[in-house]
Amino acid sequence: MSVLTITKENFDLEVMKSDRPVLLDFWASWCGPCRMLSPVVDEFAGEHSEVKVGKVNVDEQRDLAAQFGVMSIPTLVVIKNGKETNRQVGVIPKASIAALI
Question: N or C: which end of the chain has fewer CB within 10 A?
C-alpha cells in the first residue's frame, strides 16, 4: 500500500471515513528525526495493507497539526473509526509501529 499525503482537503475522506485503521506521520522536511523515521513508516506501509498510512507535513498543514495538538515531531497518531486510539512521539522501530495499531 502506498503512503498518502494527507491535507485538510482529503483528511475527512481518507482518515475520518476510513474503513481501516489509519497511521498518520506528522513530519517536516527540516526535521532530522523525521527523515530517519520516514523510510521505516514507508516500509511498514508496504508490509501492512490492512492499515492506511498517511503523512502530514506540519509546515504545509498547520491546521491539522494544531487539531491534533502536535507539539514535537515526528509524531505518529493512530485513528480508528474516526477516533485517536494511540500516539507516539519520536523515532521508533518498525515493530513498535505495529504495536501502536
Answer: N
Q: How many domains is the chain built from?
A: 1
Residue 98 a catalytic site member:
no
31 is catalytic: yes
Which of 66-92 are b and which e, b meaning 16 or more Cβ less than 10 Å from the residue's Cβ? eebebeebbbbbbbeeeeeeeebeebb
The residue from 1, 3, 31, 92 that is catalytic is: 31
CB 45 within 8 A of CB 2: yes
Q: Is the pTM of this model over 0.90?
A: yes
What amino acid occupies position 26? F
Domain ranges, residue 12: 4-100
Strands (E), the chain: 4-5, 22-27, 52-57, 75-80, 83-89
The CATH number covering residue 49 comes to 3.40.30.10
65-83: per-residue pLDDT in tens?
A: 999 999 999 999 999 999 9
